[in-house]
Amino acid sequence: MRIRYSVGLVLAALTLFSCDDTTDTIGQSLIENGDAVEIATDSFVVTTRSVLADSVLSRNVTGYLGKIRDPETGAYVTGDFMTQFHVVEGYDTFMKRDSIASSWNGDISADSCELIFFYSSFYGDSLASMNARVYEMSEPMQEGKNYYTNFNPIAEGLVRKNGFVADKVYSIANLTLSSSDRNNSNFIPYFSVPLNDPYTDKDGVKYNNFGTYLMRKYYQHPEYFKNSVAFAKHVLPGVFIKYENGLGSMAYINSVRLLTYYKYHQNDSTGEVYAAFDGTEEVLQTSTITNDAGTLKRLAADNSCTYLKTPAGIFTEVTFPVDEILSGNHANDSISSARLVLQRINSESTSQYALKTPTELLILPKDSLYSFFENEEINNNRSSFLASYNSSDNTYTFNNISGLIRQMKLSKGRSVNWNKAVVVPVSTTTTTVNSTSYISSVVHDMSLTSTRLVGGPATSRPVTLTVIYSKFK
After folding, report:
1. What pLDDT, on a 0 to 100 scale, did the predictor assign at position 35?
2. How far apart are CA 228 and CA 462, in angstroms?
């Protein structure tokens, strides 16, 4: 269908359909030397289908630990993660050697050592009994290397065969703590894993616990503690914490702390102190996500709709009829706007643990799916665009993706995917400088989300792209 407008309605039409940041061609076909402009609209059916994500780039500051079952689709998701530890440069990790009062086997020692896992939030049943196992890494993960969610340190031989292994049965609620502690407004939820068993380092030297190993290494080789890189290379490459048993919760762990406790004497008095090493965003962290492959394949094969599932689950692929959009009656037209609306299908699950709906989506060329995230790009509103979930009408709207259509036309013949784009759930970070806010980071959404979208190869409700054209009469 084509609708013609008078010149007086041109600006209003362009405003209605071009209300995002992209204004590449607006104005190119406006009034010039008094000439009138003809505006036309047309709608085109686009084809959508579900595609398996396989794995995504694991570049995040949150570790995922546990196993859950999506109550709507029945899909299982398991999370494990690895973290290294941060060393503050120029900071004395331990007190002066001659002030340490704890000893073992005729030398200084730690009284105890533990790993503490802090979680900002979680999914599922806080009382579910879960079992995890912590492994010592044999060598550091490589800085600058891209690690995806299917990377398994154990399978890759990066877990030390004779290193420490510590098991932990835990629940998110952590009822081992007192109710007064858990109800304190300053309380940060956590569970701890003791490292107090006898420990033998890679050189065969034995210690009464892992904390004593850390202390003695510090005094023998202070240069190993000068920064995080030296610490990972010579002292502790990192830890891998792996889900073992249980079902019903996924902890979103935002910080790991390694604590070594020991006694000291000073001015005829004795006290207790600890040294801390933190697994934070300053050091490398990766998550390993294992999805129920059979269930995901079944969902992706559903032709009556398409899916979005995270983490590392299912994306939606969109195929645009680019030739039809830019040929025939529109061969000499300029695209002023191209609007794509994705309608969400409400979940049929009544469970209190239904997965949340993705909040932000990115659409980008299919051939750019991996390079976009590896190169730490952000949406440029020329070939990659963001849309937020609108709960009032249950949709995601990409207001103007005309730049994507034009790029596809230029890519014809260079790739079999030239007219295909992928819709991916993402998380964005906003930075404010001098009262101006801008998006500074776009990464894969690694939280637990799931939704169905109208569309699919056999749908009775096709997805349409609305295009506004303009040209001089």
Report:
1. 60
2. 53
- How far is residue 370's CA from residue 258's CA, in Å, rounded to a whole number? 34
Whose structure tokens read 């590392």? Answer: 312
Is the bond leading into 311 cis (omega within 30 degrees of zero)? Answer: yes
Mean pLDDT confidence for 199-226: 96
Q: Is pLDDT at 39 greater than 50 in this prediction?
A: yes
Neighbouring C-alpha atoms within 13 Å toward the C-beta of 48: 31
Amino acid letter, residue 55: S
- What's the rounded Cα separation, in Å, for the pair 76 and 66? 11
* pTM of the shown model: 0.88
pLDDT tens column, 143-178: 889 999 999 999 999 999 999 999 999 999 999 998
Residue 308, judged by CB atoms within 10 A of its CB (0-12, 13-18, 19+), counts as: buried
Q: With H, G, I as helix, E, B as strand and everything else as coil, classify residue 387.
A: strand
Residue 288 in tokens: 């390993």
Secondary structure, 3-state, 70-117: CCCCCCEEEEEEEECCECCCCCCCCCCHHHECCEECCEECCCEEEEEE
CA distance 451 to 75: 13
* % of the chain with per-residue pLDDT over 90: 79
The phi and psi torsions of 11 (rounded to 5 degrees) equal -65, -40
* DSSP SS3 for 398: strand
Residue pair 466/326 in contact (Cβ under 8 Å)? The answer is: no
Reading the block at residue 209, the tokens are 């616990």
Contact indicator for 225, 37 with CB cutoff of 8 Å: no
Render pLDDT for 408-448 as a digit per residue (tens, 0 to 9).
Answer: 999 999 999 999 999 999 999 999 999 899 999 999 999 99
